[in-house]
């Protein structure tokens, strides 16, 4: 596995579940219809709105918001090359529905 880390680098992921309320539901639906061009100071390189909204950023980083299919929750996911950066992405992304 260390050979794979050396070849491809390490990735850090984080997931958080946020209780769904009417305001958050409206904000997420609006984001899906009108995706942002930036996530804070990071330019969005690509967007997918198939299952929520996924924002692809530079350095293979990304952030995803989606409705849970089984519970009244919004699922939030982020992935980056460092723990510090993934925490920043999660914070910036959660601001979108706060």
UniProtKB/TrEMBL annotation:
Q: Which Pfam families match?
A: PGM_PMM_IV (PF00408)
Q: Where is the signal peptide?
A: none
Transmembrane stretches in the record are none
Could you tell me which Gene3D superfamilies the record lists for this protein? Answer: Alpha-D-phosphohexomutase, C-terminal domain
Single GO term (MF): intramolecular phosphotransferase activity
Domain Alpha-D-phosphohexomutase C-terminal: start-end pairs: 40-89
InterPro entries noted in UniProt: A-D-PHexomutase_C (IPR005843), A-D-PHexomutase_C_sf (IPR036900)
Q: What is this protein's record name?
A: Alpha-D-phosphohexomutase C-terminal domain-containing protein
Q: Which organism is it from?
A: marine sediment metagenome
